[in-house]
Amino acid sequence: DGELFKDEYSLNLWHFNGAVAMDNSGVPDANGSRFYIVQNSSITNELAEEMLDGGFPEKVVDKYLKAGGVPNYDFKDTVFGQVIEGKDVVEKIAAVARDEQNKPSEDVTITSIEIGTV
């Protein structure tokens, strides 16, 4: 049991397809240690309209329409990276067999990673 800390998110980082983020478990200021990569290649036009009506910037909505993602996580979970190259690897990881608790049946190990800035 670690100490709780305030939710952190940036108004400049969004849950576009390939975003690397940390889950806050749905409870304010109760962040866990679950990290994920957003894997959703499209959003609906209906959702885009709802986002515009809800105050999302038009350029962000346009990017969601082009790249996909999960805008429902914006302003909740912390985005701290973006997969630029290697989305095929993300797809392979997502396709591994999982048990009834959605845990991979066999360990998935990332043996190397390259971190850069854009």
Brief summary of the model shown:
With 118 residues, the chain is α+β, with helices and mostly antiparallel strands. It contains three helices and three strands.
Topology:
Elements: E1 19-22, E2 35-37, H1 45-53, H2 58-67, E3 78-82, H3 87-94
Antiparallel strand pairs: 1-2, 1-3
Helix pairs in contact: 1-2
Helix content: 10-25%
Q: Distance between termini?
A: 35 Å
Count up the helices.
3
Tell me the number of strands.
Answer: 3
Strand content: 5-15%
Shape: globular
Low-confidence stretches: none
Task: For the structure shown, list the relevant keywords.
three-stranded antiparallel beta sheet; 3 helices; alpha+beta; 118 residues
Account of the protein in words:
This protein has a three-stranded antiparallel β-sheet, with no helix packed on it. The model has no long low-confidence stretch (mean pLDDT 86). 16% of the residues are buried. It is α+β, with helices and mostly antiparallel strands and 118 residues long. The longest helix is centred in the middle third of the chain and has 10 residues, at 58-67. It contains three helices and three strands, in the order E-E-H-H-E-H.
